[in-house]
């Protein structure tokens, strides 16, 4: 099993929406992917509830599970995932990723 963890800092305003509105849109889009991509076993999205300007704090986190590294690659390149990535790239300032094997 492979866990794929991504954390993002969002722009304050992007695509005509606030950071919190874009975070909610990201959550909805990302959580919809397991029903469209069979290789993606699960997708959990959390929106940060901490307040303050700590540089280390991210706004949104994604934790996904795939059976194999090949499944993770299929998920990453899947057209439905790429549509979500296109939106995310427009609203994100920073991105961090960790993949690990369970």
Structural commentary:
InterPro entries: Dabb, Dimeric_a/b-barrel. This is Dabb family protein. The chain is an alpha+beta fold. It contains three helices and six strands. Strand 2 and strand 3 form a beta hairpin. The protein is globular. The mean pLDDT is 96.
Summarize this, please?
This protein has 102 residues and is α+β, with helices and mostly antiparallel strands. The protein has helices at residues 19-31, 69-77, 79-91; strands at 2-10, 13-14, 17-18, 40-47, 60-66, 92-101.
Please state the CA-atom Rg, rounded to the nearest Å: 14 Å
CATH architecture term: 2-Layer Sandwich
Beta percentage is 35-45%
- If you consult CATH, what is the topology? Alpha-Beta Plaits
Which regions contain 5 or more consecutive residues with pLDDT less than 50? none
Structural class, judged by helices and strands?
alpha+beta
| CATH uppermost class | Alpha Beta
Main sheet: strands, sense, barrel: 4 strands, antiparallel
> What helical percentage do the residues reach?
25-40%
**Whole-number mean pLDDT:** 96
**Strand line-up of the largest beta sheet:** 4-5-1-6
